[in-house]
């Protein structure tokens, strides 16, 4: 490997093979854990600390409280009861005795423990047969002349690296730290900022975290709230923020077709709709319209709770593209959802003379060739579909607007793949992404610095809130009666079967059993059944029958999660609700409460409930506000899972934790402004330091 340039060396971008003792084999093990450079080791932070800076008199030991002791061996006993055991009694000046107990040991170890030898041991004492004992302490036998000086820093315990023992790992990190540049050679953040917030320099912060002084606030360190950690979190958040902004600038460097003429179609659509837009829908559409009129690419996220009416807003946006003589595409994550969009959009747009085409995986043979030809010639003005839209071989004449629904189900790369269908000669299409998973404000600020966010924060009038109850599975028989009564009144119901972590096959089987049972218990009802392994055509037929009121009770797996719209369905039962996450429960529940009758949702659970599950169900019971639910979800699960790693890489934060460090974000944004304006080179270096290759990949 070529020698790194000095400037790079100063930033820690130096291969670990330059450390003594790191040959190819060790380097490979480190690399498997993502540790490639000195800097990676600097940022490999301890997950625990051990306090070996003091000695606790044996008499003062407390059960369960970790401590270091020093004493002389008083007795050694080696025996077999059920398995080999070595017991070493040590005593100290406090005239108390502690037993060190080993189950695995070598004879060489036994020989160390001569009576009278001085031993220093570290571990957690527990009550044993002969007073307190420590099982498998870490220990050291001190030589005769050894003074056994105590360190003045806490000992770090690092996240394990497979194939490298803790001692070796600690040594490697220490060697890397010895090569931390002196002074402020490493510092990228402006001085005044650090002073202002009372934060340490990067060098100081790293040294504190790896070698905390004995008086350090260990509780804060373990909670991740120590100023040294805040310092690093701040810099990391800043780097992510800058990276997103750079991506945005790169996007903005492209041109996009200005879409400013709908040829009167939007007006015509509004006149034909059986409802008036809500104020929120109008506002969001105005925002989109203003974006689309510009010759630079829109990248806008529309958030709106289930049922808030995002589809019609997307339809109006599509009309702007179509009126300007170009094409639009709408991609949805499941076939069911895409089909429902197709039905709505055909219903709304075909009367206006718009040609809507359909492309999903199952569209094959001649039908497929026809769609592909129409997309390529421009005859299809709007193409609705699933992932199939992104495939090779799908070509548009001039795609000007790419709409992605339920974007959290897709990755960034998939969104970009659709966008690129319309890219040519420095021109890219506008992008509209829609989600019913409300994203907490803090998260949106961090995750989406690269896009504009609109919220449809109002439901159409006439919706009644859904009453939610939480019941143990034992109450199932009552529910069957309740369904009977509701359906007798002409209402419809969902019964959702959930089995998580199982294959589709198993879920389908379990749901099948439930379906058979319900069919037997409710002979007078028409009971339908949909699951993920059905042929799409059969699934759709059943859904349509339910929508048409020809099915009273629909037994379903979570395939109905997104988008299904049946206003007459006013009762939903979710089995094993404790197994679902908050956002999924919220999405499911959004299927009811779409009509005028009072609706209810019953969350059936299998006791006993975990603490987390209890909190989730309680949250569902007490609120229907998607934003409140999203905040709670963030609190319970953390951002990585909430957004999905695929989406943003937010789970890849090394130090920052959005739920914990959210209060840093406003300042991060301010500093970001200043750096982008006054010191773009520093911004680049920050991104390189924290994100490096990943950012280059995402921007490509
Ligand atoms: P989502 O935001 O969950 O995608 P949809 O777009 O599927 O919601 O809309 C839900 C239902 O509400 C659809 O039947 C749609 O036609 C209807 N809808 C949309 N906007 C309005 C409105 N302003 N007033 C009444 N109904 C509306
Ligand atoms: Mg929708």
TrEMBL record:
Provide the GO biological process annotations: DNA recombination; DNA repair
Where is each Helicase ATP-binding domain found?
291-456
Quickly give the catalysed reaction: Couples ATP hydrolysis with the unwinding of duplex DNA by translocating in the 3'-5' direction; ATP + H2O = ADP + phosphate + H(+)
Any one GO MF annotation of this record: ATP hydrolysis activity
UniProt-listed Enzyme Commission number(s) = 5.6.2.4
Q: Does the keyword Mitochondrion apply?
A: no
Q: What is the uppermost EC class here? A: isomerase
- Asked if tRNA processing is a keyword of the record, the answer is no
What the entry lists under PROSITE patterns is as follows:
HELICASE_ATP_BIND_1, HELICASE_CTER
Q: Which family does it belong to?
A: Belongs to the helicase family. RecG subfamily.
Tell me the function of this protein.
Plays a critical role in recombination and DNA repair. Helps process Holliday junction intermediates to mature products by catalyzing branch migration. Has replication fork regression activity, unwinds stalled or blocked replication forks to make a HJ that can be resolved. Has a DNA unwinding activity characteristic of a DNA helicase with 3'-5' polarity.
Protein name, per record: ATP-dependent DNA helicase RecG
Q: Which species does this protein come from?
A: Luteimonas marina
């Amino acid at each position: 490997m070529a020698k790194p340039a000095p400037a790079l060396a100063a930033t820690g971008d130096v291969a670990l093979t330059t450390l003594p003792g790191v040959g190819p084999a060790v380097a490979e093990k480190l690399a498997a854990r993502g540790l490639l450079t000195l800097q990676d080791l600097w940022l490999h932070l301890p997950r625990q600390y051990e306090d070996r800076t003091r000695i606790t008199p044996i008499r003062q030991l407390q059960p369960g409280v970790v401590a270091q002791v020093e004493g002389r061996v008083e007795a050694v006993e080696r025996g077999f009861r059920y398995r080999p055991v070595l017991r070493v009694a040590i005593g100290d000046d406090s005239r108390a005795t502690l037993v060190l107990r080993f189950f695995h040991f070598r004879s060489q170890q036994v020989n160390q423990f001569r009576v009278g030898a001085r031993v220093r041991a570290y571990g957690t004492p527990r009550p044993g047969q002969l007073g307190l004992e420590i099982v498998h302490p870490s220990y050291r036998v001190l030589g005769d002349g050894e003074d056994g000086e105590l360190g003045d820093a806490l000992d770090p315990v690092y996240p394990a690296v497979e194939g490298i023992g803790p001692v070796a790992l600690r040594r490697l990190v220490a060697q890397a730290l010895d090569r931390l540049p002196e002074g402020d050679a490493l510092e990228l953040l402006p001085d005044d900022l650090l002073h202002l917030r009372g934060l340490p320099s990067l060098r100081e912060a790293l040294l504190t975290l790896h070698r905390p002084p004995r008086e350090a606030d260990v509780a804060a360190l373990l909670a991740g709230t120590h100023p040294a950690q805040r310092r690093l979190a701040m810099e990391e958040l800043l780097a992510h923020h800058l990276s997103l902004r750079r991506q945005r600038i790169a996007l903005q460097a492209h041109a996009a077709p200005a879409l400013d003429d709908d040829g009167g179609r939007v007006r015509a659509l509004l006149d034909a709709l059986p409802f008036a837009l809500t104020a929120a829908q109008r506002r969001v559409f105005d925002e989109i319209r203003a974006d689309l009129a510009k010759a630079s690419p829109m990248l806008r996220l529309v958030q709106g709770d289930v049922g808030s009416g995002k589809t019609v807003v997307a339809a109006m946006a599509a009309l702007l593209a179509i009126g300007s003589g170009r094409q639009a595409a709408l991609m949805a994550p499941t076939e069911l959802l895409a089909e429902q969009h197709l039905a709505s959009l055909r219903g709304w747009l075909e009367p206006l003379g718009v040609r809507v085409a359909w492309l999903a995986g199952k569209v094959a043979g001649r039908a497929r060739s026809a769609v592909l030809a129409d997309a390529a010639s421009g005859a299809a003005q709007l193409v609705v579909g699933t992932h199939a839209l992104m495939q090779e071989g799908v070509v548009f004449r001039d795609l000007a607007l790419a709409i992605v629904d339920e974007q959290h189900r897709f990755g960034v790369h998939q969104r970009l793949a659709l966008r690129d269908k319309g890219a040519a000669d420095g021109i890219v299409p506008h992008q509209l992404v829609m989600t019913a998973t409300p994203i907490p404000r803090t998260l949106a600020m961090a995750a989406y610095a690269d896009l504009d966010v609109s919220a449809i924060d109002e439901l159409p009038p006439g919706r009644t809130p859904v009453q939610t109850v939480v019941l143990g599975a034992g109450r199932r028989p009552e529910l069957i009666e309740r369904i009977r009564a509701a359906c007798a009144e002409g209402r419809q119901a969902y019964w959702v079967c959930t089995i998580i972590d199982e294959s589709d096959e198993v879920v389908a089987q379990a749901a099948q059993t439930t379906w058979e049972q319900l069919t037997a218990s409710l002979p007078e009802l028409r009971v339908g059944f949909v699951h993920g392994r059905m042929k799409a055509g059969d699934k759709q037929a059943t859904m349509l029958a339910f929508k048409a009121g020809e099915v009273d009770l629909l037994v379903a797996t979570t395939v109905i999660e997104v988008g299904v719209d049946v206003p007459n369905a006013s009762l939903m039962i979710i089995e094993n609700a404790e197994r679902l996450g908050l956002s999924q429960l919220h999405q499911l529940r959004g299927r009811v409460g779409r009509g005028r009758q009072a609706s209810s949702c019953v969350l059936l659970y299998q006791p006993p409930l975990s603490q987390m599950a209890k909190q989730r169900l309680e949250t569902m019971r007490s609120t229907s506000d998607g934003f409140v639910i999203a905040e709670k979800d963030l609190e319970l699960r953390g951002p990585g899972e909430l957004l999905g790693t695929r989406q943003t890489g937010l789970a890849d934060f090394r130090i920052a934790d959005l739920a914990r460090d959210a209060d840093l974000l406003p300042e991060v944004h301010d500093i970001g402004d200043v750096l982008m304006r006054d010191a773009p080179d520093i911004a680049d270096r920050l991104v390189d330091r924290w994100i490096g290759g990943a950012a280059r990949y995402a921007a490509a």
